[in-house]
Specification:
Number of strands: 9
Strand order of the largest sheet: 2-5-8-1-9
Oligomer: single chain
Structural class: alpha/beta
Number of helices: 11
Order of helices and strands: HEHEHEEHHHHEEEHEEHHH
Shape: globular
Strand content: 5-15%
Number of domains: 2
């Protein structure tokens, strides 16, 4: 984790407890803009990395553009960490696979010739676990129904108790902008591919969350607002002590706060405006 991250011990501890749970969990966190929701996700992901928990991440900020289901799923599997491994001595390894995003592109473009043989064997081994099909049939599945293929690949990771992080959930409520076209029929209990339809991205993501949870995935969702907000944890502002502790890690700020008592309020400091502005920028905490 970042050596400059301070506070949020309650949230960090709850996350650790969640990922150790044998049952899939969902952790909803709401908070005001700039309070540090995205930075907290960064810390959660750092915990996953240090403790070898498979995970993936997606953010729906204002620059996000997921107009097609295959684009969204490719993004999810392309960002997967420690989810897929190489074949070694006939066994699937659990370490992170940097080839994965290249393989996803090759699958959906039906250009298997550009993919290393070990890569293809790894993906086929994963798919065999759930479909019990041979190589040729798997290639046909990947080319004919790529969305379902990628979704099934994600489902195979469920036994490793992976985590999906979803940030900036509040933007999904803008239903005029956030729509998605998909071949997946999300209205059925069993997801299949049919004709392409347009969905509200909010409903698509909620159904995807339900599906992944049913396959063993843990879920972390952050946003300014969200559904079932009563079940969400509210992220509180940082205390003055936390802010001063963070600021002391920076040389240009350390001198400024030297000899300042821990409960001093920054706004009461009578310093020049340039120094105050520099402190406030440094103390955005990535929010």
């Amino acid at each position: 984790m970042s050596s400059h991250f301070v506070g949020r011990q309650k949230e960090l501890e709850k996350f650790r407890q969640n990922i150790k749970s044998k049952k899939p969990t969902i952790y909803r966190i709401v908070g005001k803009p700039g309070i540090g929701k995205s930075s907290l996700i960064d810390q959660f992901r750092a915990i996953c990395k240090s403790e070898n928990y498979p995970n993936t991440y997606i953010s729906f900020d204002t620059d996000s553009h997921f107009s097609d289901g295959i684009i969204l799923l490719k993004d999810l599997v392309g960002r997967s960490s420690c989810c897929f491994g190489e074949i070694k001595d006939g066994k699937l390894q659990d370490d992170s696979a940097p080839w994965w995003s290249d393989f996803v592109s090759a699958v959906t473009e039906t250009k298997f010739g550009k993919v290393a043989d070990g890569t293809l064997k790894s993906a086929i081994a994963l798919y065999k676990k759930i479909e019990k099909k041979d190589k040729q049939n798997i290639i046909e599945d990947a080319t004919k129904t790529p969305e379902l293929f990628l979704l099934n690949l994600l489902s195979t990771v469920g036994e490793k108790k992976p985590v999906i992080f979803i940030d900036a959930y509040e933007h999904l409520f803008n239903e005029e902008i956030f729509k998605i076209e998909s071949f997946l029929d999300l209205q059925r209990s069993t997801i299949c591919e049919y004709e392409k339809k347009e969905y509200k991205l909010l409903h698509y993501i909620d159904r995807l969350i339900d599906f992944l949870q049913s396959k063993g995935w843990h879920v972390v969702v952050t946003g300014r607002v969200m559904r079932e907000e009563k079940k969400a944890d509210k992220l509180e502002p940082f205390s003055d002590d936390d802010i001063l502790s963070f600021a002391s890690n920076y040389n240009e700020l350390h001198k400024y706060i030297t000899n300042t008592s821990s409960d001093a309020k920054l706004k009461q400091r009578k310093e020049d405006e340039d120094k105050v502005l520099k402190i406030l920028k440094k103390l955005s905490f990535g929010g």
